[in-house]
């Protein structure tokens, strides 16, 4: 009974936070399942690979529910989202098959360092000038948010494909959905409006999680009895996260994203050193 309650709590909280800031929630689900299953044996049969595979299944639900909500409020750039998917999908499938070689301690250390770096970049993002390559008019899109702020952003297809392919590998490899990398990339490099970056990120999390889940299911890396509980609670949590996102300002979304990444980064580094 305790394990069921823990799973409900994990699924709901990870989906609320993940859909709110566009990271999907895998960064919460994976280390939590490992912590409860491997280190404390509260969840039987959990290995790092099974935690990653199970997380990929959950992110399908979180990604789908969040995407549908953001589509209604016109916070998803579907055109550029499909460009990102050309690299993200094959990368996700490839990453799922090399996850068997994953060393959890090294992942915690290096990915934690990366998250802290991204949180710092988000802090100074307004002082970072856009790369001239991205200012070509043929790639430009314009977006006006609810506060009347006008955004101009650019997505060169070839560059986007290369970057998202490597992000896709991390998606399948770590079961994180890719949002932790894609959202900062869209904010810092492509200069997406914050709300659009979050909505578009959830769309990519949905599709990349479907692809990586195929690879993990094929390898038997999914605990379906735990996944069922997590799916139900994640469904509710994702709906709550979308509603919260639509009621707060863009700068607040960025501040939340930065804080989440900093805390998670510190946590993962500490975990790798213990």
Describe this entry's structure for a reader.
This protein has 274 residues and is mainly α. It has one domain (1-273). Helix content is 73%, strand content 4%. It has 10 helices and 2 strands. Strands 1-2 form a two-stranded antiparallel sheet. Strand 1 (140-144) and strand 2 (150-154) form a beta hairpin. Helix 3 packs antiparallel against helix 8 (194-218). The longest helix is centred in the first third of the chain and has 25 residues, at 48-72. It is globular and about 55 Å long. The two termini are 29 Å apart. The mean pLDDT is 83. Belongs to the 4-toluene sulfonate uptake permease (TSUP) (TC 2.A.102) family. The chain crosses the membrane at residues 7-30, 50-71, 83-103, 109-128, 197-218, 224-241, 253-270. It is found in: Cell membrane; Membrane. This is Probable membrane transporter protein. InterPro entries: TM_pro_TauE-like, TSUP/Inactive_protease-like.
């Amino acid at each position: 009974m305790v394990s069921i309650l823990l799973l409900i709590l994990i699924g709901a909280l990870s989906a609320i936070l993940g859909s709110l800031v566009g990271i999907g929630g895998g960064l919460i689900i994976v280390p939590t399942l490992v912590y409860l299953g491997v280190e404390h044996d509260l969840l039987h049969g959990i290995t790092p690979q099974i935690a990653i595979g199970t997380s990929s299944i959950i992110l399908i639900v979180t990604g789908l529910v969040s995407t549908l909500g953001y589509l209604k409020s016109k916070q998803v750039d579907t055109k550029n989202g499909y460009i990102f998917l050309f690299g993200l999908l094959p990368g996700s499938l490839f990453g799922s098959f090399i996850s068997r070689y994953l060393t959890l301690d090294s992942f915690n250390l290096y990915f934690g360092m990366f998250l802290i770096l991204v949180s710092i970049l988000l802090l100074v993002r307004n002082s970072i000038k856009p790369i001239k390559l991205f200012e070509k008019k043929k790639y430009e899109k314009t977006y006006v948010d609810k506060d009347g702020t006008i955004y101009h952003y650019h997505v060169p297809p070839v560059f986007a494909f290369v970057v998202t392919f490597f992000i896709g590998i991390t998606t399948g490899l770590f079961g994180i959905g890719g949002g932790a990398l894609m959202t900062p990339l869209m904010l810092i490099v492509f200069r997406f409006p914050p709300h659009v970056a979050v909505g578009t990120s959830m769309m990519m999390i949905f599709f990349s999680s479907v692809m990586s889940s195929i690879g993990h299911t094929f390898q038997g890396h999914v605990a379906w009895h735990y996944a069922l509980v997590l799916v139900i609670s994640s469904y509710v949590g994702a709906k709550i996260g979308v509603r919260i996102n639509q009621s707060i300002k863009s700068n607040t979304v960025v501040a939340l994203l930065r804080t989440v990444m900093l805390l998670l980064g510190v946590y993962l580094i500490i975990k790798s050193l213990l």
